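Lecture 7 notes: from sequence to structure.
We start with the chain below.
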Amino acid sequence: MSENMQDRDGFIWFDGKIVPWRDVQTHVLTHALHYGSAVFEGERIYDGRVFRLSAHSARLRNSARLLDYELPWTREEIDEATRAVVKANGLQSGYVRPIAWRGSEVLGVSAIGTTVHLAIAPWAQEGRLSVQAKPGGINVTMAKFRRPSPEVAPGGAKVAGLYVICGIEKDRALKAGFDDALMLDWQGRLAESTGANIFLAMGDRLVTPKVENFLDGITRRAVIGMAEKRGWTVEQRAVMPEELAEASEVFLCGTAAEIVPVGAVDGQRYQVGPKTRTLLEDFKVLVRQPNSEDFGESAHFATA
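Predicted structure tokens for the same chain:
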């Protein structure tokens, strides 16, 4: 299959219809291209089912609301459209990218008067969407840009415009020989990587930054649930970057990344230890459970 995302075989669900991949188009003057107002999700297919699909669809709708527009499709309709296009592409495993945006009827800072569009594109390969795991863990550096405060941007929305600093930091890290970068929040506390949440193993506990204006990842929730099921203490709190030196294990987690051990942060080394290895195995089981599509999390995003 071509690496060019435009030139591929297959189908995309586009505004209510399943359309041949190459036929899906939008205008160069669409509002989202100029003002970053698209909202999107990243989802994974395991054994033909999308992991926690309902939670993803609900979060997509909530992201649009945080940008002051409504998707004209219910969560259930988005779920069904996703299942249909995954089936049309004959995928048993892969990645799904739903994206909603405001159109080209008006071009200006205000999007009032634009129509809302939705596309759902599934494919078999991730490409460069996320950091890839390595046997001894990935090599990470600290980012220069920070996640914005709630007074600056709606960090709870998975919105295209907020990823510009992530892209800059990801590229900077790769060019310097690293695999990814860790971002601080506006107060100098650990937040996340450029596209995944972070966990630290400290003694008998797992510690993860409390969500304050960055995404409360769906995989992050899964990790917390798996850890608690094993009887482990999980602390969600402010985490200072100096605490990285106290951790015995560090890992990232996200839909595209799944669970990725960190081997070093700017020279500070970590083992791929027992907690990380256990969660890696537990996650392989979790994503293939028959009820993995809907975990009852959709209500959180519907009311956020």
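Points to note: The radius of gyration is 19 Å. The CA atoms of residues 122 and 257 lie 16 Å apart.
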